[in-house]
């Protein structure tokens, strides 16, 4: 197993500078991570830094609250794709989900997926705010909408990925969509445990620490 190929090397904090993005991309090339994950305003910079490498560029959309209009999310997603992004990590409208407007949530995901075509769509359901039934409903919406991934967390909520949530998500989606675990994953044993549960991608800002720990072992 190539652990580095599971990792989306991530920087999404508000104070990230262009230099931080450049460093992120250089690290991703050096450690051969699968992708970098950046805010939409830095897609063009990341793409330019990675143009001669196999590292993909993922961009977050509707981040981190998910509460903006569908039209705005679609426009942001299209802007990211036009600037060279390979993947979109969108945040659902959490309030609509909690109000049991499941069809509206599904329709928004569908709209973004249709807009970006064959590019990969990951759907952040922000598990820390949801009951188990709401998590199941969110996962079902992701499957029905045709996205490629369901993702646990933004990393900006009260908590991130948990083993219990990933097990629940896997139980709902099976092999219909892939799972990305993100938020609070800082060490190699935790990353490996998620992968053993069937996670296809790990979102983390600690990718180098995770791989360095492997080398030391």
Task: Describe the fold and architecture.
The chain has helices at 18-31, 43-49, 70-82, 94-98, 102-116, 132-145, 163-173, 188-196, 207-216; strands at 7-10, 35-39, 56-61, 87-91, 120-124, 149-151, 178-182, 201-204. It has 217 residues and is of the alpha/beta class. The chain has one domain (3-216): TIM Barrel (Alpha-Beta Barrel).
The helical percent reads 40-55%
Describe the global form.
globular
Number of domains: 1
Helix and strand content put the structural class at alpha/beta
Strand order of the largest sheet: 1-2-3-4-5-6-7-8
Q: Return residue spans where pLDDT drops below 50 for at least 5 consecutive residues.
A: none
- In N-to-C order, the SSE pattern is EHEHEHEHHEHEHEHEH
For the sheet with most strands, the description reads: 8 strands, parallel, barrel
Strand content: 15-25%
What integer value in Å does the Rg equal? 16 Å
CATH homology superfamily: Aldolase class I
By CATH reckoning, the class would read: Alpha Beta
Write a brief structural summary.
This protein is of the alpha/beta class and 217 residues long.
Name its key features.
single chain, 217 residues, alpha/beta, TIM Barrel, 8-stranded parallel β-barrel, 8 strands, globular
């Amino acid at each position: 197993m190539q652990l580095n190929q599971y990792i989306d090397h991530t920087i999404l904090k508000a104070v990230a500078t262009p230099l931080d993005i450049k460093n992120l991309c250089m690290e991703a090339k050096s450690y051969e991570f699968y992708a970098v994950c950046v805010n939409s305003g830095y897609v063009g910079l990341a793409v330019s830094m990675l143009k001669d490498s196999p590292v993909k560029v993922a961009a977050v959309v509707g981040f981190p609250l998910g509460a903006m209009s569908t039209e705005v999310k679609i426009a942001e997603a299209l802007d990211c794709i036009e600037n060279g992004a390979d993947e979109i990590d969108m945040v659902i409208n959490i309030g609509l989900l909690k109000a049991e407007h499941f069809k509206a949530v599904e329709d928004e995901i569908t709209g973004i997926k249709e807009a970006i075509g064959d590019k990969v769509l990951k759907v952040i359901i922000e598990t820390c705010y949801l009951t188990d039934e709401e998590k199941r409903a969110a996962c079902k919406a992701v499957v029905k909408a045709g996205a490629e991934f369901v993702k646990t967390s933004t990393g900006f909520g009260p908590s991130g990925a948990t083993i219990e949530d990933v097990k629940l998500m896997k139980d709902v989606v099976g092999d219909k969509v892939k799972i990305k675990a993100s938020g609070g994953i800082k060490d190699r044993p935790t990353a490996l445990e998620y992968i053993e549960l069937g996670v296809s991608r790990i979102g983390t800002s600690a990718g180098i620490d995770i791989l360095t720990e492997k080398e030391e072992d």
